[in-house]
Write a structure and sequence with these properties.
The protein has about 90 residues and is mainly α. Helices cover about 75% and strands about 0% of the residues. Helix 1 packs antiparallel against helix 2, helix 3 runs antiparallel to helix 4 and helix 4 packs across helix 5. The termini are close together.
Length: about 90
C-alpha cells in the first residue's frame, strides 16, 4: 500500500455513490472493482498493528477527515502530528 492508493479511497467512494445515482449508465462490474479495491485498502489498514496509527489512517482515508481533525482526535497538539505518523508508517513499511 502506498500514498497513491490511499489518496484514491475518497474518490472511489464518491465514484460508487455517483454511479449508483446514474443507474442508466451504471456498470456493475466497474462498481464491483471499486468496492474490491476499497476492501483491499480497508483490510490493509486493519492489519496495522498500532492502534493510533490504524485510527489515523481510518480517520484520514476512510472517513475523509482533514489532517487537523485527525490530529485533534488523536490528541496531537498540532495538525501535522497525524500526518507525520502516517508518513513514517508508510516509509517504514
Amino acid at each position: 500500500m502506498n500514498r497513491d492508493d490511499l489518496r484514491q479511497v475518497r474518490s472511489l467512494i464518491a465514484e460508487i455513490e455517483e454511479d449508483a445515482k446514474r443507474r442508466e449508465t451504471f456498470d456493475d462490474q466497474q462498481a464491483v472493482r471499486y468496492r474490491e479495491r476499497l476492501r483491499e485498502i480497508a483490510a490493509w489498514i486493519n492489519e496495522i498493528g498500532d492502534s493510533q496509527t490504524r485510527r489515523a489512517f481510518r480517520l484520514r482515508y476512510i472517513d475523509g477527515l482533514p489532517w487537523a481533525a485527525v490530529s485533534f482526535r488523536l490528541g496531537y497538539g498540532g495538525e501535522s502530528g497525524a500526518r507525520k505518523l502516517c508518513e513514517r508508517y508508510l516509509e517504514n513499511s
